[in-house]
Amino acid sequence: MTKAALLLALVPQLAPQPARVGGAGDPALPLLPQVSAGHPFVPDTVLSVPGGPRIVRLDMPGSPLIAMRLSIPLEEGASEAGAGYLLQIMGADRARALAGPVGVQVEGTRTPWGVAYTIVGTRPDFDFLAYLLSEAAAEPGAPEVEFERARLAQRAQALRSQETAAGRVVAALRAGVAPSMPPLEGTVESLDGLTLSAVRGVWRRSHRAGGMTLVIAGDVPEELLLSAFQRLGSSGEAPGRPTAPAPRGQAGRAQVIRHWYGEARAVGDPRDPHPTVAVLLISDRLRGAGSDWEAQVQLWEMEGRQVIAIVGAAYPGAAVRMRGGIRAALGETSRGVTAERVRSAVATVRHELLREARTPGGLVTVVGRLVEATTAPDGARRFLDSLERVTPESMVAFLGSLERQTPQRAEVRP
Amino acid sequence: MAAARPGRLLHGLALGLACAWSAPATAQIVSPPGDSAAFRDHGFLSLAVSSHPWSTLVAVTLVIPRGSAEDPDELSGAAWLLGEAVRSRAERSLDVGEATVTVEVGRAQTVLQALALPSAWEDAYDALLDAAFRDPIDGNAVERERASLLAVFRFESGAPVREFEVEFYGTLSRRGDRWGRDPRGTPESVGRITRGDLEDLRIRVYRPREAVVTVAGAVGSEAGVRVFPAGSEAGGTPRLGPRGRAPMWDDDDRRHLVREVTNSWIGVAFAVPPDVPRTLLEFIRHRLEEELNPEPADPDLFGSQVRIEELPGGTVLLIETAVLPEAQRRWEQRIAGTIERLGERHRDPGSFRWHRRRFRSVRLTSDGAPEAEGLRMALDLLREGRVRDLATEVWAMQPEQVEQAVDAFGGPRVLVFGPDLGQDGR
Predict the structure, then answer these.
(1) Containing structural domain, residue B361
(2) What is the ipTM of this complex?
(3) Which B residues, 33 through 72, put their C-beta within 8 Å of a C-beta on chain A?
(4) For residue B223, is it within any domain?
(5) pTM as predicted
(6) How is residue A245 annotated by DSSP?
(7) B154-158 long-range CB contacts below 8 Å, 24 or more apart?
(8) Residue A63 and residue B358: Cβ atoms within 8 Å?
(9) Does residue B62 share a domain with residue B188?
(10) Is B153 domain-assigned?
(11) Does a structural domain hold residue B342?
(12) Inter-chain contact A357–B56, Cβ cutoff 8 Å?
């Protein structure tokens, strides 16, 4: 008798009784319960609160933990680049200062679609967790000095990135594939122009409860959930998005000893799993390519699209080989596609996604991120389903379409 | 029966264990699930399952209560190499993406964990057990790990932190005791170990009857019912944990190993009385670590870590703190004072409840990953023969228990490792 058959022969008992030890296949033996047919990524309910956030519930009956992710869509004008990033830093810091004494986890993040806050705590603390989320999403009331501290820290980070050849290449590629989208972290120039008043304007424009989505994993009665988030975000008049262009600056020359080169290509559908699988296949291909140069494959999620970027570095003697290797990477990967390689890459992507989602906090992060990207409450489940439809033929077709694109290119030379 | 594969045997046994549970997750405690003699005849000492259908993966955990302290004298590092060989074998017998397998070899135990897809957890379960107890040792994996270890040893050559760790563990037992050795061995010993040595070691220390297996995560009925309810008895004999009535030592001891290094290490060890409940001890550990990593940060402090370890003779609480040499004396006093005052700091019931609430949140959150819960269940079974209901036990802690426990600690045994800057720290 196979294990699957054994598991299907479930006999749950409601009263204690002694177990009997016996051989597998003994029909008299009480058995381990059947693995649930429901999937953790499938919402149990989706609630729409008038004037409030959409609530996506992932039930966890009996769990002592609650995890919540509040997603707030946000768009910045070019001259406001970095405002959203600063908003989530200040919001997360505010919530963390309140959460620390109670042992609650708080994370804030700037995504291609907005800002998101994730909170993990215990079930008896639900009211407090809801309060923390409200505080994170509240209008920044920090003294000017705290705003300046965050802004200057972010500016220093932008400067550091400019100093490195990798940062320069990535910034140039990004500007090429998405010229109208300023970098989420801001630039030195845009951060220099940001004021607390301007950031508050971005908050008032974006933090509208009706546009927010809350993903919650836990054991919380519906009525409690509905009443906990009645006051979220901004309710006043929303200022318009400024149309001023991105401020320009002149970056100094980078001091490098290696030759850096990168290519980037955009694909249109954020729900498509082919880019994720392609990154693994291309990385495997490049790993075996050259011993005197190195390259990294990156997948960028941007609003409405995904971008595959390959960035490499080599000492001058190997620069030509490196450039050639990167230019040939897609074609060589495509020619090397086999059923085994695709199966292995798909399995790795699936495992990594499920691994990230194995904790309550990870689960709301994965589900929430795919809700943000796709607007569908079951976006995560759809992504997993579409992963199963990736085949060697579809991968070859995908890589071929990428290869036919004229890529954005960027270079930094010694 | 002896010829049957341990995995399938255990599976039959595990099914036999799934005796009864009640529908709500807050299940009542059930009576011991079986004849413990039958357990020992068929296979493992203990098994526990924790069911969370909402989880995405399943953690299968195998804990063997033997570690590097079992290495033969000239072959330290053998348990380490053996663990990696078993890990590699288990992972390679599974399809890519079905499961990842990790191993952690300590002085007193070897922990193998598979983190598997729900559809593959049974294969992972079998793979783990077969690799541990039946399959030939993977010679290629041994050579890979040997090469990796030797490279790490070359990189770490002369690293003072390694000397500190060996000396610190040496203070916990007789000098020269195997307990004091680096679990990874030395470049010389690792180079000597043969596959035959590993086979001999495995026969000696990898005994199913001493081991514990747990399964945690996306298994179980949709009601999320625990098959092996918290608080019930496993029907076995604890293999770890206190083996006497008193803490391992009572005396104080202090040594200063003078070394010309750029930061000082302070190691402080306390022997824990056997009757201190584990959840209370974890609370004490948590509070000590909070107090010794203050916010805002002390600029002279690199970090302070507090651990609970099981030694052959009992349980110890270990504090390891790295500081600038000129702050060494101040921090040594700070550590001693923190322990002394820990009890009185929790006398106030309001303050105690506040700290307890935070500990509960942190503890339950860390238990939220299936592999963390699986390991915790396994160690509970080895130590006490039962699985703790963490949430209940945390709420049950009382303020006076902290002071009573800390007052009963034996020790401290202190090792200071760093320059001797005299009384004024200059």
Answers:
(1) 253-418
(2) 0.84
(3) 33-35, 38-39, 42, 49, 51-57
(4) no
(5) 0.86
(6) P
(7) B154/B187
(8) no
(9) yes
(10) yes
(11) yes
(12) yes
Chain centre to alpha carbon of residue B201: 21
CB contact under 8 A, A14 and B368: no
Q: Which residue has the tokens 């070899």?
A: B105
Q: B392 in contact with A at a CB cutoff of 8 Å? A: no
Q: Given B30, B218, B223, which is nearest A35 (Cβ)?
A: B218
In angstroms and rounded to an integer, the radius of gyration of the C-alpha atoms of chain A is 25
Domains of chain A: 45-228 (3.30.830.10), 259-412 (3.30.830.10)
Interface contact B21, partner A, CB < 8 A: yes
> Is residue B425, in this structure, part of any structural domain at all?
no
Q: Which residues of A touch B14 (CB under 8 A)?
A: 32
- Count of CB atoms situated within 10 Å of the CB of B259: 16
Burial class (CB in 10 A: 0-12, 13-18, 19+), A224: exposed
Q: Does any CB of chain A come closer than 8 Å to the CB of residue B100?
A: yes
Q: Which residue of B has its CA nearest to A103?
A: B358
Q: Are B308 and B315 in contact (CB under 8 A)?
A: yes
Tokens standing for residue A409: 């290119």
User: Per-residue DSSP letters for A68-112?
Assistant: EEEEEE----GGGTTHHHHHHHHHHHHHHHHHGGGT-EEEEEEET
Say which CATH number the domain at B353 has.
3.30.830.10
Each residue's pLDDT, cut to its tens digit, for chain B (426 residues) gives 233 333 443 343 333 333 222 222 322 212 223 333 333 334 555 667 787 878 899 999 999 999 999 999 999 999 999 999 999 999 999 999 999 999 999 998 999 999 999 989 888 988 998 999 989 999 999 999 999 999 999 999 888 998 898 888 888 876 567 877 899 999 999 999 999 999 999 999 998 878 888 888 988 643 223 333 344 444 445 555 545 556 677 777 899 999 999 999 999 999 999 999 999 999 999 999 999 999 899 999 999 999 999 887 789 999 999 999 999 999 999 999 999 899 888 889 999 999 999 999 999 999 999 999 999 999 998 888 888 999 899 999 999 999 999 999 987 999 999 998 876 555
Pick the residue from chain A with its C-alpha nearest to B218. A35
